[in-house]
Write a structure and sequence with these properties.
The chain is mostly helical. Helices cover 52% and strands 5% of the residues. Catalyzes the transfer of the diacylglyceryl group from phosphatidylglycerol to the sulfhydryl group of the N-terminal cysteine of a prolipoprotein, the first step in the formation of mature lipoproteins.
Length: 373
């Protein structure tokens, strides 16, 4: 299991890179990675939302709810899925609950971040008058981009790495680090699971953008595709990790809690994605961005608007060719009805005119009798 430090091995950063002082403040690289991820997610989501015809203010209205909720949810999930450090083994009270506030130690659990972050986004979208599914579809690639960046915080902390490996890109962990597993030689290399997940997430961002550009997914289809992509990668990456975690046995198979969670969510997300995909195709022409009655004045963002446009000249000519005689005569009668009457009738003369006086010949003319058959 041991391996000498290979030329292509990934070194861990020195301690002074993981945290440094800025005046009276201590800046943690883990927190900076999370912050950079949030900024990148907001930037990409803003571009995508505006490209879909949305107003930029909506992004900030939703972000002030989704981001704090996501951080709180992520921390709570981590604490209760790895409770020993905070409450002691079997909650015997020997832990240190104040460490719950130290998000740079242990980090955030993605499932809690997604769950409470979605709740915060729902509150924000309801207040802004937009559909949660529309906002989530616009934000999905940005959220995955944030995860790709945030994972580098594990590298700075030298944590959450995988099992030992002899691969040339193995990760070198400082033997003096509290996260270095007991019983391993000092020169052991480990799978850089942070890098695997970061690269998987970046590939997922590219896939989501390409799929959305090609198929114009709506009504939540894209965000559930994001969940499918992420959980598919998280399942095998999580299985490689050797850090302490809660183990669950199902049907005789024992695996980490996050492995089972990823598998279950993957199956559910795939089913929901297929449902949303069908719904997205059936609801072309529907307003997919705003809640009923909440669209800004003078705006209507719809799918398939171009398909509902006025008929072309060719289609009009074709329709005319198949019209009945009564239908062809209808426009002429409508034009006659629509023609304006003279604004003022001419005043009649009190004296008879030449047209009013019949000639003697005309008066003497006798009408012809009708012919008998």
């Amino acid at each position: 299991m041991a391996a000498a430090l290979a030329p292509g091995a990934i070194p861990s950063p020195p301690e002074e890179f993981a945290r440094f002082s800025l005046g009276p403040l201590t800046i943690h690289a883990y927190a900076l990675c999370i912050l950079l991820g949030i900024i990148a997610a907001l930037w990409l989501t803003l571009r995508r939302w505006k490209a879909r015809g949305g107003q930029s203010d909506v992004i900030w209205d939703v972000a002030i709810w989704a981001i704090p909720f996501g951080i709180i949810g992520g921390r709570l999930y981590h604490v209760f899925s790895s409770p020993d450090a905070y409450f002691g083994p079997n909650y015997d009270g020997t832990g240190d609950p104040i460490k719950i506030l130290y998000i740079w130690n242990g980090g955030l659990g993605i499932w809690g971040a997604i769950a409470l972050g979605a709740l915060g986004a729902w509150i924000g979208t309801r207040r802004a008058g937009v559909r949660l599914s529309a906002f989530a579809d616009a934000a999905a690639p940005g959220v995955l981009l944030a995860q790709a960046i945030g994972r580098w915080g594990n590298w700075f902390n030298q944590e959450l790495f995988g099992s030992a490996t002899t691969l040339p890109w193995g990760l070198k962990i400082d033997p003096s680090s509290p996260n270095f597993p007991a019983g391993y030689p000092a020169d052991t290399l480990f799978h850089p699971t942070f890098l695997y997940e970061s690269l998987w997430s970046l590939a997922g961002v590219a896939a989501l953008l390409l799929v959305d550009r090609r198929f114009k997914l709506r009504f939540g289809a894209l965000v559930w595709l994001y969940v499918v992509i992420y959980t598919a990668g998280r399942t095998w990456i999580e299985a490689m990790r050797i850090d302490e975690a809660q183990m669950i046995t199902i049907s005789g198979i024992t695996a980490r809690l996050n492995v089972w969670t990823s598998l279950i969510v993957l199956v559910l997300a795939l089913l929901i994605f297929l449902f949303c995909l069908i719904r997205s195709r059936r609801m072309k022409g529907e307003d997919f961005m705003y809640l009923p009655g909440r669209a800004p004045a003078g705006e209507s963002v719809q799918d398939g608007v171009e398909e509902a446009a006025a008929p072309t000249k060719e289609s009009g000519a074709t329709a005319g060719a198949h019209a009945t005689p009564a239908e062809k005569a209808a426009p002429a009668s409508q034009e006659a009805k629509a023609s304006p009457e003279p604004a003022e009738a001419e005043e009649e003369s009190p004296y008879p005119t030449a047209d009013d006086v019949a000639s003697p010949a005309e008066e003497a003319k006798v009408p012809e009798a009708p012919k008998q058959n």
